[in-house]
Design brief:
Layout: E1 3-7, E2 10-12, E3 18-25, E4 33-39, E5 46-51, E6 58-60, E7 68-73, E8 78-83, E9 92-102, E10 105-110, E11 114-118
Parallel strand pairs: 2-11
Antiparallel strand pairs: 1-3, 3-8, 4-5, 4-9, 5-6, 7-8, 9-10, 9-11
Length: 120
């Protein structure tokens, strides 16, 4: 059974930092592109950052470039999102995603999400 479990969310003041973790099990972690998405109330889920299976490439949404860093540890089957210079508009539920392309299309797994609230 595939599991993705996020942790590290919470309440932080504007300008602060948080580190999210997503621990996975039940999948061949090193075969999956890993991503972080977020969804704010009343808005659609959006990609925040993604990292290739071996960590050789990563990409970021424009709204987090220079503030967030995605990384992965394939030995620990875990992906991280280091968030800095947080803004109130970063408030959302953050979801971990594992994606692998197959001949039949993409295979996606999701975590349950972790709440990040940026407020003074």
């Amino acid at each position: 059974q595939v599991q993705l479990v996020e942790s590290g969310g919470g309440l932080v003041q504007p300008g602060g930092s948080l580190r999210l973790s997503c621990a996975t099990s039940g999948l061949t972690f090193s075969s999956y592109t890993m991503g972080w998405y977020r969804q704010a109330p009343g808005k659609e889920r959006e990609l925040v950052a993604a990292i290739a299976s071996a960590g050789e490439r990563s990409n970021y949404a424009d709204f987090v470039k220079g503030r967030f860093t995605i990384s992965r540890d394939n030995a620990k089957n875990t992906v991280y999102l280091q968030m800095g210079s947080l803004k109130p508009e970063d408030t959302a539920v953050y979801y971990c995603n594992a994606r692998r392309l197959t001949p039949w299309g993409p295979r996606d797994y999701w975590g349950q999400g972790t709440q990040v609230t940026v407020s003074s």
